[in-house]
Amino acid sequence: MSIDIDKESGALVVSGEVISNNLDEVDFAHSSLGSGAVRAVFDNRWVIYRRIKIENGGLVFRFLDGKLAEVDLAFADMASGWGCWSEDREAFAKSLHDQWLVRHLGPPPYAFEWGDVQSVHDPKAGGSQIVVRYRRKATVSGALQG
What we know:
Layout: E1 3-5, E2 12-14, E3 17-19, H1 25-29, H2 32-35, E4 38-42, E5 46-54, E6 57-64, E7 67-75, H3 87-105, E8 115-122, E9 127-134, E10 137-138, E11 144-145
Antiparallel strand pairs: 1-2, 2-3, 4-5, 5-6, 6-7, 7-9, 8-9, 10-11
């Protein structure tokens, strides 16, 4: 599975399937990516889809109030598990993420009208990933929309 990101819109393209920031959870759940994922609900507002494999890694989609809010990308061998984990391996994973971002979005910072992107390493969780966060737009009434 290949993955790309459009710098102008923030849309992700995963093996030809376009994931835009206005995607709603119902449509995602019926997509080829969502149908095979593990779904979890938190706080009645957040719905998370995990275990979506891509080449050498995986994706996590987070929906807030039914609209796509965040996507995590990780380029690492998910099958290796914790038995192969090391700080050096995570530093290498983060460097792969940093390189991918430069290839697809140019040099940091990655702040756009549609949202922001970060390459992060969380030492407490022991993982590294790219986090794409979409901005929610305020409507005329003041309510937020995806």
